[in-house]
Specification:
alpha+beta; four-stranded mixed beta sheet; Immunoglobulin-like; 24 strands; 3 domains; 5 helices; about 30% strand
Length: about 450
């Protein structure tokens, strides 16, 4: 009896119990095995995203140092740091497929990133390209886990003059736009590619031109195209007038003048003033609609010169200037500025820093062939407070004048204190400092 009880107490697992354990272990192994593939793909996709981001940052760093983008070139390092393969050191994603690159070719020229305002590279986000992202500087792509590079050039709905790249939402069906050198020129040609339309899974990062300029801290006020004049000087009736309208920045033309110009007249055309292309003597281009005027009809020059003897009135003009941002002319940088000229009778000196009551100064230049004499009459008809002469070609600054003083010029003196002949009143003093030029008895002085 004791022996029987001992045998019962040493009983092991039954076959049913062992079978249940084996089923549970099998289920656990199967579940773990099924998770390995997705987890591995997820890990590799995350690593590939980091590879693409690193390539983007390398390109931005290159642009910051060189004010240009690297070219694709022949994808072979040659010792000159100017190609994608030399700037981006790790050009393979975690799936062991090449990372490739699209860029705005106009931005590969020296000094181009900060000077341009538009690009010809556009991203299409749908098959009809109605959802698009313009002014893209560059795009970096990984073909991701399906080993099939699907991002390339598309033409459907692409605006004229643009190069469009299709970048779609994940799992967009039937995409394959990188099939050869025509639509995917910067994919490594020595590697075969899988050409099949399938759900889109590429990893893509892009940078717009304005984002790139912000990241590399372009001095926008100095590099972008602009008309530098804030105003034009006022004119005096029947007096010689001269002014110049300047531009700077942008992408100047290499020859024939830095920029192209067009002028719109707002209201009346000023009588007596000529607008010419620089000093060429050729009249500038006038249009009622400069923005829609063909580029070839614009006048090319560095600046616009305004000269002549104007009639009375107030005149307003809108100047347009364009650069060589796009050789086709479609995407040139174009800026405008409206400037005015006010022409009136000579009623005083030009004030450079506001009116004054005492301690005013006037600088007088004698551009005539005569010796002239300057007189500032005394208060209440008293003796003159200033009586100086200026020989031909010389100049003189009169100080300690009072607001409202009248400066008279004589081209001869008279004995006995009689009234001189040939008196010409220059102006009334209204500014703290001003300059007058005397050109002779037949011409009044010019205020400038």
């Amino acid at each position: 009896m004791q022996l029987y009880q001992q045998k019962l107490s040493s009983k092991g697992f039954t076959l049913i119990e062992i079978a249940i354990v084996l089923v549970i272990v099998g289920l656990l192994l199967g579940l773990g095995t099924s998770l390995v593939g997705p987890l591995t793909k997820k890990s590799k996709r995350s690593e590939s995203q980091e590879d693409v981001n690193a390539a983007v940052n390398a390109i931005i760093g290159y642009a910051a140092s060189n004010n240009r983008l690297p070219v694709w070139g022949d994808n072979t390092a040659d010792g000159t740091l100017d190609e994608f393969c030399e700037v981006v050191t790790d050009r393979t994603d975690s799936f062991q497929k090449p990372i490739y690159y699209f860029c705005e070719n106009l931005l590969t020229a020296v000094g181009s990133v900060c000077s341009r305002q538009t690009t010809t590279l556009t991203i299409c986000r749908d098959g009809s390209c109605t959802d698009r992202i313009p002014n893209v500087a560059f795009i970096v792509v990984s073909g991701a886990e399906n080993y099939n590079p699907q991002t390339g050039i598309v033409t459907t709905g692409c605006p004229a003059g643009q190069t469009c790249i299709g970048v779609f939402a994940p799992e967009t069906a039937d995409i394959d736009d990188c099939t050869g050198g025509g639509n995917c020129p910067n994919y490594q040609a020595s590697l075969s590619r899988i050409n099949r339309a399938e759900p889109y899974d590429d990893i893509v990062e892009w940078v717009r031109l304005d984002e790139l300029q912000s990241k590399i801290i372009c001095a926008s006020a100095q590099s972008k195209l602009r008309i530098t004049n804030d105003s034009l000087p006022s004119g005096v009736i029947d007096m010689p007038y001269s002014a110049t309208v300047f531009a700077e920045g942008g992408v100047p033309f290499s020859s024939g003048g830095d920029y192209k110009w067009c002028r719109e007249i707002n209201g009346t055309t000023p009588s007596g003033l000529l607008f010419t292309l620089g000093t060429s003597g050729t009249y500038d281009v006038i249009s009622a609609d400069c923005l829609n005027l063909a580029e070839g009809s614009w006048g090319q020059t560095d600046s616009i010169t305004i000269e002549g003897i104007p009639a009375d009135g107030a005149f307003s003009f809108t100047f347009y200037v364009r650069d060589n941002n796009d050789s086709s002319g479609v995407y040139d940088n174009i800026v405008e500025k409206t400037l005015s000229i006010s022409v009136s009778a000579h009623d005083g000196l030009c004030s450079q820093s506001g009116g004054c009551s005492d301690a005013c100064s006037v600088h007088v230049e004698n551009d005539s062939s005569d010796t002239i004499h300057l007189v500032v009459p005394g208060d209440g008809g008293g003796p003159p407070r200033v009586f100086d002469k200026i020989d031909a070609g010389n100049e003189l600054t009169i100080t300690n004048l009072k607001g409202g003083d009248e400066i008279a010029v004589y081209n001869q003196t008279c004995a006995g204190g009689n009234q001189p002949e040939g008196i010409i009143t220059l102006a009334n003093v209204i500014g703290e400092y001003a300059t007058l030029t005397y050109r002779g008895p037949d011409k009044s002085p010019v205020c400038r």
